[in-house]
Amino acid sequence: MRTLFIVDTPSQVYNIMDAIAVYKIDSYDVIINDCNRVDTYQQLQARLVELNPTQLFEVPRVDGNISERIEAYGRFIQSFIQTGYTNVFFSAIRQQWQRDIVCTLQAENTVLMDDGNATVIFYEYLFTHQKFFDFPFDSDDERRKLAEQTREKLGIKTKELSTLSLFTMFNLASLPWLSVVKNPLLHLKRTDKKLNQEQAFILGVGAVTVGYITLEKYVDLIAKTALEFIGKAIVYVPHRIESELLLSKIKALGITVKRFDKPIENELSKREEVPATIISYHTTALFTCARMFPNIDVVCVQPLMSTWKDAADSHVWNFTACNNLQGLETVYKYIDKEPRIRTIKLADPIM
After folding, report:
1. What single DSSP character describes residue 58?
2. SS3 state of residue 92
3. What is the pTM for the complete model shown?
4. Alpha-carbon separation of residue 215 from 63, 96, 143, 209, 326 (angstroms)
5. Alpha-carbon distance 90 to 25, whole Å?
6. Chain centroid to CA 344
7. Confidence (pLDDT) at 38
8. Spatial separation of the C-alpha atoms in residues 77 and 74, rounded to whole Å
9. Most buried residue, 15, 86, 211, 318, by most Cβ within 10 Å?
10. Burial code of 248-260, b = ≥16 C-beta within 10 A, e = fewer?
11. Which residue has the higher pLDDT, 223 or 317?
12. On the CB side of 261, how many CA atoms lie within 13 Å of its CA?
């Protein structure tokens, strides 16, 4: 059985590794696309050394018109059809290039891998309604018609899937049109580490950059979070999209800032001693660290939802079923269900 993996971020390499083990895949092809933030593709390429695909298809960054962007990946479509993949794994329902390949191939077994916390949002707002894609309507008539013509020329189909399989770390129920396969996160080895009881890491969530909160309010939130852990040496681990201006404000609080060149789970796994406490607000790493390091105190600090009120009007990329604030509310609901994550709810508003 031929298998194709469709990915465009470095974290998806770990999902591929887990899927290969769980689905007992012997050989596979991979297609990657340079379509995200500037450094994402380079990080993805670096992670690919951990894989051994039969064929690797690379889609370079294209900044031309919509036709050129579709053709960049669409040129592989006919060869994919001829190959006749039985299994197609993809990683992002908000990426049109992935939708185009998945819907064109209509493989016997089409599997969506986790896209971080976004998976539970998709489940609540799309999958329960037997819907799998939710792209906004393109009001630019000329661009929309050019895209349609280009897809028709390349033989690309966009008809909605009738069924889907979900490979996920979350405890989600199967539906008549959605089969759920649990991802045991085999690449994350459960391990008890020597703990530094005096140290705590706060993991950044990139909330300022994506417009969920102002810089000043986020710094205030960090300060109030640190007060919940008096006596701990706090280290702030920024999200890769967070600015140097933000980090300078956090340093001014007397908090150490430390960037790592790898995901936090991998950084901690290589250490002999790890912080006794991992803290964040709504990152996927809360779930993964809780499962990987059973002796670490993994804490979700939850401010009042009004703290994130700007998220209601922030840009939602290729998704219309809910706004970002509603998405965050859904993520918090699932965090509250996770027994290994301890929750601290802040009572006072962030001013």
Report:
1. E
2. coil
3. 0.91
4. 31, 32, 36, 9, 21
5. 15
6. 24
7. 65
8. 5
9. 15
10. ebbeeeebebeee
11. 223
12. 4
Q: Does an H or E element contain 137, and which?
A: none
Tokens of 22: 């769980």
How would DSSP label each residue in 159-185?
PPPS-EEEEESS----BTTEEEEE---
Q: Which tokens sit at 56?
A: 């690797």
- State the DSSP string of 201-242: EEEP--TTTTTSS-HHHHHHHHHHHHHTTTTSEEEEE--TT-
Q: For 274-325, give the DSSP string.
A: EEEEEEESS-THHHHHHHH-TTSEEEEEE--GGGGGGGGGS--TT--SS-HH
Q: Please name the amino acid found at residue 190.
A: R
φ, ψ (nearest 5 deg) of residue 248: -65, -35
- 135 neighbors 97 (Cβ within 8 angstroms): no
pLDDT in tens, 75-96: 999 999 999 999 999 999 999 9
**Average pLDDT value for the chain:** 93
H/E stretch holding 179: strand 178-182
Tokens describing residue 301: 């600090």
Span 247-298, pLDDT tens digits: 999 999 999 999 987 789 888 988 999 999 999 999 999 999 998 899 999 9
